[in-house]
Specification:
The complex is a heterotrimer.
Chain A lengths: L5 H36 L1 H7 L5 H27 L2 H32 L17 H9 L5 H8 L6 H34 L9 H26 L2
Helix pairs in contact in A: 1-2, 1-7, 1-8, 2-7, 3-4, 3-8, 4-7, 7-8
Chain B lengths: L2 H6 L19 H23 L4 H22 L7 H25 L3 H9 L11
Helix pairs in contact in B: 2-3
Chain C lengths: L26 H5 L4 H30 L10 E2 L2 E2 H37 L8 H23 L21 H30 L12 H33 L12 H35 L6 H15 L14 H12 L2 H15 L8 H24 L1 H7 L3 H31 L5 H27 L14 H31 L41 E4 L4 E4 L1 H6 L3 H4 L2
Antiparallel strand pairs in C: 1-2, 3-4
Helix pairs in contact in C: 2-3, 2-4, 2-15, 3-5, 3-6, 3-7, 3-13, 4-5, 5-6, 6-7, 6-8, 7-8, 7-10, 7-11, 7-13, 8-10, 11-13, 11-14, 13-14, 14-15
The chains are: A mainly alpha, B mainly alpha, C mainly alpha.
């Protein structure tokens, strides 16, 4: 320990975490830019792509993450007030929310892979009847009723939905990796809290991991409407 | 909430804090209040997206998301009570993000036709299409 | 642990023989050390190895170019066509030099060593993170060795798609992309650590404006490292996925946008240019002030111009894309903005010159490198203005003019400052003096060789010699041959340095505490420093108060004046 006070050490760790979060913002910046560029040039691609996304699942995940963000903030409060049980409970709930998020995400991903609505070169609808109903209706109105015709319309020689799904999978995938990292961090935090490592003057890890978790939530707050809602 | 109090002693907590606590202790009511506000805003986002108003949908969704994000940053992330420099880092990085998105978006239309040409003259194997 | 064993009698130089180098022994104690000085030393060895490797490729390139006008590039050499080999070598030269040497070079080696000591601190704020960045650096370096072993790459260090990504899966390419991704995180963590340290570990009585200017430069560098590097990390991550899975984000065949890659790439890689030059400017400020024995002129101007360069660095990336399909309007704006970089750069140069004015200049080796820096940076900077104006740029784009320009800045300036810094802090880092005569000869060789290598390239470039070709038409022969001779002389200078510095490490004379009479806090420690950096309480004083030190003929170095030690205050304040 080479800081003169615990307070200084706390602030140093926190400043480091904030710089890391600044870094995170720019880490995602390239993906947001890619989104904006493809959307700006191919609005219709996003319009059609949206039919594949289930906004109910996205909204459920939003609420889950918001709730976990609250429990994360609460865990900091518990650490400050030295409420040991509360600390363990809030950490556990945050972890469970993260796990719930990933489970919902898993169902979304597997469904997309099943349908064949995936990235770039691999985009290939397996069966017209498996397309989302609204999209089936829209395509039928345009006289498209077969799998081949749907692929011609949506695939790389048509609207190029592969790029939409590239953006979708990259953005949510990178975010998902962050959630997994967060789960690892909260598991570690739980063990440390169990050992009683934290008190009102020493809880930097709880605070910093909560900050990280909030930025994961914050990014999802933007991803949800951009990908699921505005077509 | 006693903001003024918390602000003048940004390294110490509210009345409920134990003596010598480092940092600002957020009251439980604030945490729940912030969470409920965020849920309400999420509902508004979903509802607003059901109405098709063209480009305004994007603007509206982003505006609400920005409000939500700011609430998370200011209360959950304690930026309200934190050192100003930490706020500055976040603000600065968001500024660079906006500059990057804005500038590239401004430029992107100009070279689309070149890319279209390239795409139409090449097959996936990277060999020129037989004419 | 074996620490504490006194192995040699106390000498006249520092008083104690126990220091950070022999505190503990054995390779394991080095590998798990959290000591910033040891980490810095390991970085120094690593980046110097990278420099020599990149230099080897440079020499190979120049050798091929010696008779590029008459030789058929289809000829075979070691089973490869000359042109194929050439393409791989210039790619590896660029990638190794940029990612393994120049970007981490000064901050991670010299900065890591000096930064905490200039604050009178024991270590960086986050020592574990520091060790982690070293390991990330090593992993990245090993990946690059893998690229080499598997036959290299021929994409150019910029890895532009579609050429780079749009072909059969290539292991060297995957390794290179991962390497840069990992090295990026090494760089981010170093920058983050530096900023935290400068904020939280300044001693009482030292404000931001009392820090040595080297630290201001490192601060600005760190800001760029933290805020720009993630963009390239993500970009190369996406490229990797694109290359393997063809997701259609950069490759036009699959609906991607290759110009977007260039935007992303330069959003990082242009600021990265300032990651390379800003620490060099910081070293320069220290060298010029110390060897002019004068308080640096325009302290705040130099300090804030570093920050200004960092910020402006973020808004000029498009000038790398003038002929890449970017819109004319964007080109105009970027051209206009680019000129702004010249202002803070010029502020620095003028202030250095003003610092020297009426100073008592001592032409020690580090100062010679400092002078060379100013000359070469002047040329490199001013030719940058040629390139910033869009009409010139269209003519000069991708010619040897560009090559000469950025080598003037990246090699001429940064490499010179790196050498200057190594010579300046060598006595502190190793506790040994080097042979001054040989050092001056090496400096001369580097300077002459460098100018001979790159001045002709300016001319060749304006006459239309394009970059990245193994052969050329006959009219360029003379320029290439001068350039090759210059490269050999430069190489000889660097080799000479390696020889006498290695010799000095083992056999050099013991270094006094403060051989130069410098005033920043690191010189109050022993040479080499104790494991805890300082054995006596540090007298916190402004970085350029040279009158606090007086020459001591017994040690051959400078000692703090008695009244400073007794009062614990700077002379300037004692007399007030």
């Amino acid at each position: 320990m080479h800081f003169d006070t615990l307070h200084n050490q706390f602030q140093a760790g926190k400043l480091g975490m904030w710089l890391f979060l600044g870094q995170e913002v720019l880490f995602f910046a390239a993906l947001f830019t890619a989104y904006a560029v493809y959307r700006g040039n191919h609005t219709e691609m996003f319009h059609y792509g949206q039919f594949f996304l289930n906004w109910q699942m996205g909204a459920a995940n939003t609420i889950v993450l918001l709730f976990s963000s609250m429990t994360a903030a609460w865990s900091v409060r518990c650490a400050q007030l030295e409420q040991r049980k509360g600390l363990l409970l809030t950490i556990a709930v945050t972890w469970l929310c993260a796990a719930t998020f990933m489970i919902i995400k898993y169902f979304e991903y597997t469904h997309k892979i099943h349908v064949g609505s995936v990235w770039g070169a691999s985009f290939n609808i397996h069966d017209f009847s498996e397309l989302p109903e609204k999209l089936q209706k829209l395509l039928t109105e345009q006289g498209i009723t077969t799998t081949e015709a749907a692929n011609a319309k949506l695939g790389k020689d048509g609207l190029g939905l592969g790029t939409f799904f590239a953006v979708y999978f990259c953005m949510t995938g990178l975010h998902g990796i962050h959630v997994l990292v967060g789960m690892g961090l909260y598991a570690w935090l739980f063990v440390r809290a169990l050992k009683g490592s934290f008190n009102r003057k020493y809880y930097g890890a709880v605070d910093n991991i909560a900050l990280y978790w909030h930025i994961v939530d914050l990014i999802w707050i933007f991803l949800f409407p951009l990908l699921y809602l505005i077509g | 909430m006693s903001d003024g109090h918390a602000h003048s002693h940004d390294d110490h907590g509210h009345g409920e804090a134990l003596p010598g606590t480092i940092g600002h202790v957020t009251p439980a009511s604030t945490l729940i209040g912030v969470f409920l506000t965020l849920v309400v805003l999420t509902v508004i986002t979903v509802a607003a997206a059901q109405v098709d108003v063209g480009r305004l949908n994007v603007v509206g969704a982003l505006a609400i998301a920005t409000v939500k994000g700011s609430i998370v940053a200011l209360w959950f992330m304690h930026l309200r009570y934190d050192k100003r420099f930490n706020f500055f880092i976040m603000f600065g990085s968001v500024l660079f993000l906006l500059w990057m998105v804005g500038y590239i978006l401004f430029d992107t239309k100009m070279y689309q036709h070149d890319m279209e040409n390239y795409r139409h003259n090449k097959t996936v194997d990277g060999k020129p299409k037989p004419e | 642990m074996a620490g504490g064993v006194v192995e040699k009698p106390a000498g006249a130089y520092g008083g104690s023989t126990k220091n950070y180098l022999n505190e503990t022994r054995g390779i394991k104690n080095w590998l798990i050390t959290l000591d910033h000085k040891r980490i810095a030393l390991m970085y120094l060895v690593a980046v110097t190895s990278a420099l020599l490797l990149g230099g080897f490729f440079a020499i190979a390139l120049r050798t091929v170019l010696w008779d590029g006008a008459v030789r058929d590039p289809q000829d075979l050499f070691l089973g490869l066509r000359i042109e194929q080999m050439y393409n791989r070598y210039f790619t590896l030269h660029g990638a190794v030099m940029v990612f393994l040497f120049i970007i981490p070079g000064i901050p991670a080696s010299l900065g890591n060593f000096v930064l905490p000591m200039q604050l009178g601190a024991k270590d960086l704020a986050l020592p574990r993170l520091n060790l982690m960045s070293l390991y990330l650096y090593w992993i990245g370096a090993i990946f690059f060795v893998g690229v080499l072993a598997l036959g290299g790459l021929d994409t150019g260090w910029t890895l532009y798609p579609p050429y780079s990504l749009g072909r059969d899966t290539s292991i060297p390419l995957i390794l290179a992309l991962s390497a840069v991704f990992i090295l990026g995180f090494s760089s981010i963590l170093t920058g983050l650590n530096f900023i935290v340290t400068m904020h939280r570990l300044r001693p009482p009585g030292m404000g931001m404006y009392d820090m040595p200017l080297f630290l201001w430069a490192l601060y600005a560098t760190s800001l760029i490292q933290v805020l720009a590097t993630p963009v390239i990390g993500l970009t190369l991550g996406l490229s990797l996925i694109e290359h393997v899975f063809h997701i259609g984000i950069f490759l036009p065949e699959y609906g991607g946008d290759p110009v977007l890659y260039q935007h992303f790439f330069w959003f990082y890689s242009h600021p990265a240019v300032y990651i390379m030059i800003l620490p060099a400017m910081g070293v320069q400020s220290e060298l010029i002030a110390t060897f002019s024995r004068k308080h640096v002129f325009g302290y705040k101007a130099i300090g804030w111009s570093s920050i200004a360069i960092a910020v402006i660095g973020f808004i000029v990336w498009g000038h790398h894309m003038f002929v890449a399909g970017q819109s004319p309007a964007a080109g105009l704006i970027f051209s206009f903005l680019t000129f702004f970089v010249a202002i803070p750069s010029a502020i620095k140069v003028f202030n250095w010159v003003a610092t020297m004015y009426k100073g008592s200049i001592e032409l020690k080796t580090p100062m010679l490198y400092g002078l060379a820096f100013m000359y070469l940076f002047g040329i490199g900077g001013l030719t940058g203005l040629f390139l910033a104006s869009i009409a010139n740029n269209v003519h000069l784009h991708d010619t040897y003019f560009v090559i000469a320009h950025f080598h003037m800045v990246m090699v001429g300036s940064t490499l010179n400052a790196f050498f200057g810094g190594v010579h300046y802090w060598w006595p502190k880092m190793t506790g040994r003096m080097y042979n001054e005569t040989l050092a001056k000869i090496a400096c001369l060789l580097v300077f002459v060789g460098f100018n001979l290598a790159f001045m002709p390239q300016f001319v060749a470039g304006t006459r239309g010699m394009p970059r990245r070709y193994a052969n050329y038409s006959d009219e360029f022969t003379i320029f290439h041959q001068w350039s090759t001779v210059g490269a050999y002389i430069l190489g000889a200078g660097v080799l000479l340095q390696v020889i006498y510095l290695t010799h000095s490490w083992f056999k050099g004379a013991r270094a006094p505490k403060n051989p130069w009479g410098a005033a920043s806090l690191e010189w109050q420690s022993d040479s080499p420093p104790d494991f805890h950096n300082f054995t006596k309480p540090v007298v916190v004083m402004a970085a350029y108060d040279y009158e606090n030190w007086e020459y001591d003929a017994n040690t051959g170095g400078y000692e703090l004046r008695k009244e400073v030690v007794e009062t614990g205050r700077s002379i300037a304040t004692v007399h007030n």
